[in-house]
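Pasting as-is:
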Amino acid sequence: MKTLTSPAFLRYLAGLKRWLVAAGLGLAALAMRPWFSASLGTDVTFVIAYPAVVAAAWYGGAGPGLLTAALVLVGSLGFVAAGVLTGTVLTGRALVFGIGALAIAAMGGQMQRARASLRLRAEHAEERARLAAEREAALAETRRTASLLQSMMDYVPEGITVAWGREANIALVSRHGLSVIQKDETQVTRLPASQHPQAWEVYTVDGKQLVNGADLPLTRACRGEVTKNAEYLIRATDGSFIPILCDAGPIRDQSGAVTGGIIAWRDISERKKAESALHEALEQLEVLLVQTPLAVVCWDETFRITRWTGQAQALFGWSAHEVIGRRMEELGIVYPDDAAAVAETAARLSSGAEPYVVSRNRNLTKSGSVITCVWYNSVLPKPAGGMQATLSLVLDVTEQERTQRELATANATKDTFLATLAHELRNPLAPLRTTALMLRGKAAEDASLFAMSGIVERQVNHIARMLDDLLDVSRVAIRRLELQREPTLLANVLSVAIEQARPALDAAQQELVVDMPTDQVDAAVVSGDKARLVQVFANLLQNAAKYSSGPGQVHVGLRVEGGSAHVHVRDSGIGIDPQSLTSIFGLFVQAASEQRSQRGGLGIGLALVKGIVELHGGCVTACSEGPGSGSAFRVSLPVAEHISVVAPPLGLPSATGSTLAILVIDDNRDAADSLAALLRTLGHTANVSYDGKTALNVYETLSPNVVLLDIGLPDVSGYDIAQHIRQAAGGDNVLLIAITGWAQADAKSAAAAAGFDHHLAKPVDIHALLHLLSSYHRGKRSDGAVETLLQ
């Protein structure tokens, strides 16, 4: 195939084509001769042969022209011999034809040579044009390459150096490289390898200057060697050392021979700083992990342990050698009952969705001991999702849990003690209060007896309030005080609190000044527990009376500002040492003052005030300029959306207005008898039972309208009696009121479950009891849930 397309073969075909055309023209002229016999006759003639000879000579030159003439002559002889033509060929015509054919062939040869010359010149011109175009394209490509190379040398943020020959004569240095080393191009180019170390001031990473240029990467590249990631130091003009990272390789021509070398290098100062900072951070982390009192455990994505510190060994018992590469379940470190919780935590960690997961579970040590641990797990997520690794800090809280259990037990014991103490103290207070009320009712004309009964009543009320405060402050301290919130007008709260504190204020000769503008009253609506808020302000007012230093004034003000209602209680009493202002709201804390200590108290009132106010989302502050300057307290509560609140009617009825049959059941005879006697003086029919069994018989005999029932009876529980009454005929219409020394929330809930309508703590507030009796319609209880009245 290569021979058929070679230029020589093609030239051979072109020459053969000329001879074939000449032969064809001669044969065509002979073949056409008989067709012209009618006009030319049968004699030999060469008229039609001349055009064939001309065409053959013009197309193929002298040789093909002569071939055509020869074919015509020979063919004519054949025609004469065959009788197609007459005459003889050897005539003057043939001689003339021969001479003419020779002349025509000669001219054809000259024409052919002229055409070949012209064709050759045209081909040479085309070749010159092609070569010129190729040369121009090559020059353009060279210029583009040079421009690209220059742009790279000028703008690529890399140091690039090019050298030629085995001597590594530096020809080019990038602009960025010159700026990094702070040198001029003339200082570092046109230099052989032997001068490179001095001109460039190259040092090894350990600070030794290189003096042999043959060792440099660029010189080795010019010898055909390749260098990857070699680090050196270059000293800049300002004397600083610049760390660089080098890659170098040879430049080869088309034959593969090395003609030079190129080196790319970059300033890695920032990377070195980052590596140094990372190294320092890792060292610090290592120190922290080693010195932290927490056990440190690291896991890979399959939860195999990759790190186990000494603290982990001290906590769990296994050494790092025993656990590295193993999974937790292989160690048996998880307490069986907590395996499901640990598996759930592992699933959360494995997802990688949460960067920080805290878990708490029991673990087993190598010795078999059970410990409780809190695991603080930090997750390193994969870019595509999932967990790559986890760092766990483990805190042993076994002792803490034990302490918490002991504290919870101690707290429960304390609550039980306080509740029992309150119960035991309330029982003797009940008959005292009832007897004092009866004495006051019968001693209206005996001023001395009336005053003494008032003293007894006030002291009983004071002890009752202390018991309530003691129980409430305990609940507040553990955030278990329940609030019955409702839209409450603070003005109404203050009115009730003032009414409660009025006897103490009058006894201390304190003039009460109230500043509550109408517009402020209407705006001061809070979401609160009215009874608890009354407790707050009554406590503050009673303190103002208690710590007075003689006749004076107590100011109560109400303002609404900035979305909060502010109540100010200011007195002119003995004041507070400024150093005590920050601690005065602490439990069992009293301000350091001789005058205050002389006035006694448990130090729980202000702690209770602070706790109740904070449960309402507010705050309380105290201020005083010092002893003898009085005190001021400010209570701030968030204002609720404005709701119209109607003030309840003031005062309680002194009697129910109708006679009721009342059964009093209490194993404390004094309490039962005094309460029954008081009820009789108010016009009711009252009977008494001192134990549960007798009470049930009396109830079935009398069928009373109201039963006042103590819970803690010696033989039958008051709850059981209440349930029995509710199940008896007509029991649904009986008003059941629990009268008990148990005032805790669970006691009230138990009373409601047993069927009581109301729960009153001893000593009973007679006004509250009369209010309940007056609201009772004979034969019909009020609808609704059990009402809890706080004393």
